[in-house]
Amino acid sequence: MPITESPPLAVLYEQDETAWLEAMASLAADGRHAEMDFVNLSEFLADMAKRDRREVSSRLVTLLTHLLKWQHQPERRSGSWEKTVLEQRRELRELLESGTLYNHALAILAKSYADARKEAAAETGLPLGTFPTECAWDLDGLLTDEE
pLDDT confidence of 137, banded at 50, 70, 90? Predict the structure, then answer.
């Protein structure tokens, strides 16, 4: 079997991110820090942090939207809605074990609620004014499985 030479890490990063990650992990584990691709590593880590923040935001909006629908359309409640609420709460609790992401969730709660109001109105066909302008839940209250 012919031996193929690996492309430089910067090229590998562009071609195959998973292979690049494996190579970087191997270099770090072996203490070969001088060979690591720190430029792309920095970019990758910053992107991961942004992705985590976006996930918190998305899950908050989804949870809040379903809670608003649950409150304002009791006749349409379904197991699917309940499952979504439980799933979003569980996922958020796990994400928010990070103090940084917990603080991020606190900071964006009002904006997430405003987005959820719009989504709930669009999904239910109810006027936007049906939904309170202020969020009735604090972050810890949102994360409990009691409603």
Answer: very high
